[in-house]
UniProtKB/TrEMBL annotation:
Keywords: ATP-binding, Nucleotide-binding, Transport. GO terms for molecular function: ATP binding. It comes from the Bacteria. PROSITE patterns: ABC_TRANSPORTER_2 (PS50893). This is ABC transporter ATP-binding protein. Residues 20-268 form the ABC transporter domain. It holds the Pfam family BCA_ABC_TP_C. InterPro entries: AAA+_ATPase, ABC_AA/LPS_Transport, ABC_transporter-like_ATP-bd, BCA_ABC_TP_C, P-loop_NTPase. Gene3D superfamilies: P-loop containing nucleotide triphosphate hydrolases. It comes from Sneathiella marina.
Length: 271
């Protein structure tokens, strides 16, 4: 890892190629230990998969990184700074975007409007200017619309722009979730079970899409996923959890062959 210390007049900051660092994170729900001292780094520009059997703590960790849950102990650093004091509504402007397992789209709005909503946190206009339709708000709206159209083109969804969400196939809605998340130009895109409910062709499109997002935007990707084939194909690094503890992290092949991971999934292997 390529860390170096850079001194300025007022402060000393750590310049690092680690985008996100999970440091000894524990989370308890009453007597249940959902996460127990979990640590790992996500290098900038990598695609990282987070796996583990049911109840392993994947969603809990995902929710801690997106600030939906608080940790009991440990720290989570984004670009070298703790995010634990940052409110949830700041996550998007800080560069952390996410998609949801259960689609969180507005069924009675058009595709374009849903995608434009994803870009609003980066807007400069205020509530009053928007209400009065002042010239700069109209310009910003136009720019937002153009950007939404270019994200829709990137995702191959431009033909659907004016359709209502309600009637669209599930696979298209899943792509729209990704499109909307891209509107905030995330440095880290967190994807919660992106493969869930997709058919075979949609799965191979998803692999290509995740790679294209990283390659063209330089976006770092963290995905929580049960579909092992997808995780192993698309990830450069995989972190495996079980019963709230990190079992292993490494290249997909190392994880697939790791005896503790095999045992956690199959209940067999190493004795
Ligand atoms: N809000 C909550 N309140 C109480 N217990 C919770 C809560 N969220 C998670 N848990 C518990 O924490 C543990 C980890 O759950 P979590 O949902 O993070 O696992 P997971 O790996 O995402 O599982 P799955 O793959 O089934 O979604 C489980 O025992 C779960 O029951």
């Amino acid at each position: 890892m390529n860390n170096e210390i850079e001194s300025t007049n007022s402060a000393t900051s750590v310049v690092t190629d680690t985008l996100l660092s999970v440091q000894d994170v524990s989370v308890h729900f009453g007597g249940i230990i959902a996460l127990d001292g979990v640590s790992f780094d996500i290098p900038a520009g990598q695609i990282v998969g987070l796996i583990g059997p049911n109840g392993a703590g994947k969603t809990t960790l995902f929710n801690c990184i997106s600030r939906l849950y608080n940790v009991n102990s440990g720290d989570i650093l984004f670009e070298g700074k703790s995010i634990l004091q940052s409110p949830i509504h700041k996550m998007s402007s800080m560069g952390i975007g996410r998609t949801f397992q259960n689609l969180a789209l507005f069924a009675n709005l058009s595709v374009l409007d849903n995608v434009m909503i994803g870009g609003h946190p980066t807007g400069k206009t205020d509530y009053v200017s928007n209400a009065l339709h002042l010239p700069w708000t109209r310009r910003e709206e136009r720019e937002l619309r153009d950007r939404a159209m270019s994200v829709l083109r990137f995702m191959g969804l431009q033909e659907t722009a004016l359709q209502l969400i309600g009637g669209l196939p599930f696979g298209v809605q899943k792509r729209l979730e990704i499109a909307r998340a891209l509107m905030s130009k995330p440095k880290l895109l967190m994807m919660d079970e992106p493969a869930g409910g997709l058919n075979h062709n949609e799965l191979s499109d998803l692999v290509a899409t995740i790679r294209k997002i990283r390659d063209e935007f330089g976006t770092t990707v963290l995905l929580v996923e049960h579909h092992m084939g997808l995780v192993m194909e698309v990830s450069e690094k995989v972190v495996a959890l079980s019963f709230g503890k990190k079992l292993a992290e490494g290249a997909p092949r190392e994880i697939q062959e790791h005896p503790d991971v095999i045992e956690a999934y199959l209940g067999t292997g190493k004795k």
